Amino acid sequence: LSKEEMKNYGYQIVDAIVEHHATQDQKLPVALGSREEMDSLFLEEAPEKGSEPSQVLNFVLEKVMTNSANMAHPRSFSFVPGPSNYVSVMADALATGYNIFSGGWAASPAAAELEIVTIQWLLKIFGFPKKKGGGIFTSGGSMANLTAVVTARRIKCGDDFSKAVIYLSDQAHSSNIKAIRVLGFKKEQIRVIPTDNELKFSVNKLKNCIAKDRLEGLYPFCLIATAGTTNTGTVDPLVELGKICKKEDIWFHIDGAYGGAAILSKKGKQAMKGIEKADSLTVDPHKWFFQPYEMGCLLVRNHKNLSHTFTEKPEYLRDIEGNTSEINFYDHGIQLTRRFRALKFYMSLKTFGLKEFRDAITYNIDLAEEVETMLRGSKSWEVVFPATLAVINFRYNPISKNYSEKELDKINQYISEKVVESRKALLVTTILNGQIVLRMCLINPRTTMKDVTDTFDLCKKYALDIEAKLAS
Ligand code: PLP
Fold it and tell me: Which of 338, 364, 278, 384 is nearest to 111 (CA)?
């Protein structure tokens, strides 16, 4: 492309992104499309001959972008939404536009330095030792958890992990068990500890389990706690778990991918007490730090543990190793070639300031509590699990009716399916204590109480629908 053509092409894309950001709240959050429909739009052989750039672009804007869910929509309540922010989007465009290699110091001293600086910011936020501590940006929380378990295993077990045992709760995110399996641990080496009534890691059950494992000659080496479970936002008893890990000399990993960012708010800070004692901590800036995908992060109490785990010295990297004060992030994690993730975090924090993040997170937590109060005042809705770090679980369960558990499951599943089918809100179910419940995750600062009440009106409409069907 000529310089002029590049400009025109780029301007069209920026225009489309800006238009999207300016109007996304008026669009529908849900995209529906079957495999057949997508095949009919896109399936073709790789073209031998190219096409006009604007023709391809227009096709993409028309067919690809419109057939994708808008996770930043204020009525996108499910999974963990991705509120994102425009400055970081543009930062990503810059990082990709310049194709900056963020693996080694030699390739970009500035990229390495910005990763060091932004990791330092996070270390301070989470109360980790600033000098000794370290970390790395990853593609997301799953990769950060995997990086943590690899590190824990290397440091605690060396090469022989045949007797090693790892502990996590039944509410831990699936990425942890995935990481453990990826690393080749057998079923007999994994202890999934049941949670207590509040869905928290049961400390007593854990203590008993560790004692039993030691008696059997096994080696408890790592515990994974969660600071903000995906289901309910619950924070495990971090202080107690930290003490157990210290006493038992067990690696203490905390998965704060969802909830960690809450530490920026007053209520969240209180809930996160004990997080600073972790050996490693996953946070996920593409969740509640409002960054576009992909950006996860692993923080460690001792940065040397990462380099001990991941450093390799192949001959072809000899000349770019640099001196010991220079950090090559390819020696701190799994990836060699890495995109420049730190840039978006750096630019958005510099542009908005931490206060803006704190205010947004505080607003989210307060909004969820307001929703809980509203539900508790209603005769139709039951709060199944209270608002916790901006997540709330509830179900349609009118007190005037005496529905069986089976009927309630059916009704709430139906409500969710119909709401999603309407495309007006993304509201899906989860299962708590065997009950199908609706789950709202309110981490979007643009979500208003009206978005919530409109969604409840919609739910009520479908609830009456299915009630009529059940009655007939
Ligand atoms: N851990 C928790 C607690 C999560 O909620 C999630 C995602 O929702 C993950 C890990 C996985 O993070 P990612 O989807 O960024 O890989």
Answer: 338
Task: Return the ligand 1 atom nearest residue 79 CA.
Answer: 8
Does any ligand 1 atom lie closer than 6 A to the CB of residue 236? no
Pick the closest to residue 218 from 178, 250, 194, 243 (CA basis).
Answer: 250
Compute φ and ψ for 315, nearest 5 degrees: -65, -30
Say if ligand 1 is within 6 A of residue 141 CB.
yes
Q: Tell me, in angstroms, the distance from the centre of ligand 1 to residue 79's CA.
A: 9
Question: Order of strands across the sheet with 164-169?
Answer: 134-138, 296-300, 280-283, 251-256, 219-226, 164-169, 190-193
Report the DSSP beta bridge partners of residue 168. 192, 224
- Give the Cα separation of 94 and 111 in Å (integer): 12
Q: Residue 253 to residues 154, 159, 455: CA-CA distances in angstroms?
A: 14, 20, 37
3 state DSSP class of 187: helix
What does the alpha-carbon distance between residue 385 and residue 382 come to, in Å, rounded to a whole number? 9
Residues in contact with 274: Cβ distance below 8 Å, sequence separation at least 6, in sequence order: 237, 238, 239, 240, 241, 242
> pLDDT tens-digit profile of 380-415?
999 999 999 999 999 999 999 999 999 999 999 999
Ligand 1 close to Cβ of residue 257 (< 6 A): yes
115 lines ligand 1 (CB under 6 A): no
Contact of 252 with 225, CB cutoff 8 Å: yes
β-pair partners for 381: 396
**What pLDDT digit, counting tens, does each position of 244-282 carry?**
999 999 999 999 999 999 999 999 999 999 999 999 999
Question: Which structural domains are found in the chain, ordered by start?
Answer: 1-31+69-83+353-472 (3.90.1150.170), 101-339 (3.40.640.10)
- Ligand 1 pocket: which of 258, 280, 281, 391 to mutate (most atoms <8 Å of CB)? 258
- Ligand 1 centroid vs 140 CA: distance in angstroms? 7
| Residue 312: burial class (beta carbons within 10 Å; 0-12, 13-18, 19+) | exposed
The predicted-structure confidence for 332-353, as pLDDT tens digits, reads as follows 999 999 999 999 999 999 999 9
Look up residue 29 and give its DSSP letter.
S
Give the span between the Cα atoms of 254 and 252, in whole angstroms: 7
Please name every residue paired with 76 in a beta bridge, in sequence order, or none if there are none.
Answer: 426
Centre of ligand 1 to C-alpha 392, Å, is 17
Cα end-to-end span (Å), the chain: 65
C-beta of 92 in contact with ligand 1 (< 6 A) = no
Which tokens sit at 127?
């109360």
